[in-house]
Design brief:
alpha+beta; Immunoglobulin-like; 5 domains; five-stranded antiparallel beta sheet
Length: 647
């Protein structure tokens, strides 16, 4: 028995020890789990703090400006480089183009973005590069560039640059901005290629033509060229002289250096006011083939120096500015009928018939031709015989644009209808102009033309070819009154519902509404996707708005502004209808496009005549009478209405 009791006691103690061990193991596990939880929480808090700190640093914004070179030669390129750093700067901020037109011409821009994540830190940098061509010499300052980021303004420091008068030596890039020694920049080409503006004369009278030729001088192979935006010619009427063929090259010696030259552009300028006038420089971009320069020779130099292995470099050129002295026309000897024509002209007149019957039509043609600004010529005053009905002349022009300048003719065709019989004389027509070669005024006249009007075979008072009196047909019998007896509507017995108008109205109206909704949606989609269709649809609305503006200017007495707005309304209407880009709204191109669209010739000639009148009135020396302005306004409005029907 004692042995059995001792055995039970031993087993009980072993069970208690086992329970203690299990409890200890469980307690250790819970402790380790709590320690793990505390560690994870601490890591999460630290990570959040790091992210917040990194985000705060990423939102730091800065902007800097620098130059790729601080000394350049005239007509050489230089670059303004703007760097912005910040978290979301590439999507929210863009600096304005530096305004340094006082001494440099803007030539283009580019941008690049750089994003980096280093040690959990996010940084972004966006670089804007603006390229300019130096035009004036001296020391200049580029003003600070300011941007606004999240409601706060940031500015760069001002930059200083010096433009040297000579462009024959290479410009030195700033440290860290230049290229390798074996890649010459396009800026080094100024001594090998340049553009000159050459006038045929530097002293002219007001209204006398100046032919300005742009000639390229080069000692390099030119693969492509293109003129940039045309300069503002100010107080000059401009006529471009087209080059019929590809530019022809010739060789010329300048200071003992042989250049290949080519005429690339020629224009005729007619000064509209007196004084010393400056024609701004013309900018042009060329692509030339250059060969890389090597710092040392190699066995392959003789092979790779061949021009075939050269590279193409884009280079900006700027011509010289030209100064023209415009002298006023002399007051002594100025004829009373002088209207401002300058040049050399001839005048002729004739009729298609010498003998005609009363009430029949004859044509009187007056042709004014010569060398000068043909478009601004006005018709001579003609005192037609009493008893002749005279209609507005049909005006047509023929302009010749050649190397010698602008010449051509302007023809006026009058339709005359004599209403009385007898012998009549159309008196001579006179035209006065100033001849700059002779430096005096001249007056040319036509001979008198005799017309014999015989008795008409038709009833007096009728117009030939129509059989109708010129007076409007008047309605007679207005005193007749018809007796109407209205007994009211009759309703037949047993009338069906579908025989009533209300039934069909309720049936058709929903279909009409549905059809209109489908049409409206299709039309809106077409307006959004088809630019030509959208411009054509809005052409009339835009033209009417511009005509309202022109009418306001007419009421104010602003003659140049009125005719400018009138011409703008007509050209923009045609451009919208024909889908011609706004930069290409040139009169001759629009006339050609109208003829290509089969617009009636009389409307095309009216279009050309109205634009010519607008140009003439804008630059005329005398004021336009109010009735002439109203007449021009009415003709433009009628012509737009007619063109809307055919375009």
């Amino acid at each position: 028995m004692p042995c059995k009791r001792m055995s039970r006691i031993c087993r009980r103690r072993e069970k208690e020890k086992a329970r203690h061990r299990d409890a200890a193991v469980a307690t250790g596990s819970r402790g380790r789990s709590m320690r793990v939880d505390r560690t994870m929480t601490l890591k999460f808090i630290l990570s959040a703090l790091l992210l917040v700190t990194a985000g705060a640093r990423a939102e730091d914004f800065s902007i800097t400006a620098s130059l790729d070179r601080n000394t350049v030669g005239r007509n050489q390129q230089f670059r303004v480089i703007i760097e912005m750093s910040g978290g979301t700067v590439m999507n929210s901020v863009q600096p304005e183009v530096p305004d340094i037109d006082a001494f440099a011409a803007f030539a283009g821009s580019s941008s690049s973005t750089n994003i980096q994540v280093i040690n959990g830190r996010f940084t972004s940098t966006k670089t804007f590069t603006y390229t300019y061509v130096a035009r004036d010499t001296g020391s200049f300052e580029i003003p600070p560039i300011t941007v606004t980021y999240k409601g706060k303004k940031y500015s760069t420091r001002a930059l200083k640059i010096r433009v040297e008068p000579s462009a024959t030596t290479p410009a030195s890039p700033l440290p860290g901005r230049g290229g390798s020694a074996r890649r010459p920049a396009s800026n080094d080409l100024s001594d090998a290629i340049f553009l000159r503006a050459i006038p045929d004369k530097k002293k002219v009278y007001q209204g006398e033509a100046v032919v300005l030729t742009y000639k390229l001088f080069t000692r390099m192979q030119v693969t492509n060229y293109g003129f940039r935006k045309q300069p503002h010619y100010g107080d000059f009427w401009v006529e471009e002289i087209p080059l019929k063929n590809q530019p022809r090259t010739t060789d010329e010696l300048i200071d003992g250096v042989r250049y290949t030259t080519a005429v690339l552009k020629r224009i005729a300028l007619f000064p509209t006011s007196t004084g010393t006038k400056t024609i701004p420089a013309q900018d042009m971009e060329v692509s030339v083939r250059v060969r890389d320069r090597r710092s040392r020779r190699s066995v392959f130099d003789s092979f790779f120096d061949d021009p075939f292995f050269g590279r193409t470099v884009n280079h900006m050129l700027s011509s010289n500015a030209v100064t023209i002295e415009v002298r006023p026309l002399p007051a002594a000897g100025r004829p009373a009928d002088f209207s401002g024509a300058v040049g050399q002209f001839t005048l002729s007149a004739k009729t298609d018939k010498k003998q005609i019957k009363a009430n029949e039509a004859l044509t009187f043609r007056l042709v004014l031709s010569g060398q000068g600004n043909i478009k601004t010529l006005s018709a001579p005053e003609i005192d037609f015989p009493e008893g002749f009905e005279v209609y507005e002349p049909k005006v047509s022009e023929k302009i010749n644009r050649t190397q010698a300048g602008i010449s051509g003719s302007k023809r006026y065709e009058y339709v005359l209808i004599p209403r009385r019989t007898g012998a009549f004389t159309i008196p001579p027509a006179a035209f006065s102009y100033f001849d700059p070669s002779a430096r005096r005024y001249k007056t040319i006249t036509t001979p008198a033309l005799d017309i014999t009007v015989l008795e008409s075979d038709r009833t007096a008072g009728t117009v030939a070819g129509t059989g109708l009196s010129k007076r409007d047909v008047e309605l007679i019998g207005r005193d007749i009154r018809y007796i109407t007896r209205d007994a009211g509507p009759f309703q037949p017995i047993g009338r069906q519902v579908y025989h009533g108008a209300a039934f069909w109205l309720l049936l058709v109206v929903p279909l009409l509404v549905l059809g209109y909704g489908m049409y409206y949606r299709a039309n809106q989609e077409k307006l959004g996707s088809n630019v030509a269709y959208a411009r054509s649809r809005k052409a009339g609305r835009v033209a009417r708005r511009q005509l309202q503006q022109a009418h306001k200017l007419m009421q104010k007495g602003d003659v140049p502004g009125f005719y400018a707005e009138l011409a703008r309304a007509l050209t923009h209407f045609a451009g919208n209808k024909l889908n011609v880009m706004e930069g290409s709204l040139v009169r001759d191109e629009l006339i050609t496009a109208l003829r290509d669209r089969s617009v009636p010739e009389e409307q095309v000639q009216a279009f050309e005549s109205i634009l010519a009148e607008c140009d003439f009135r804008r630059f005329a020396l005398s004021e336009a009478p109010e009735d002439a302005m109203q007449g021009a306004y009415d003709r433009v409005r009628e012509l737009i209405t007619e063109l809307e029907k055919v375009l």
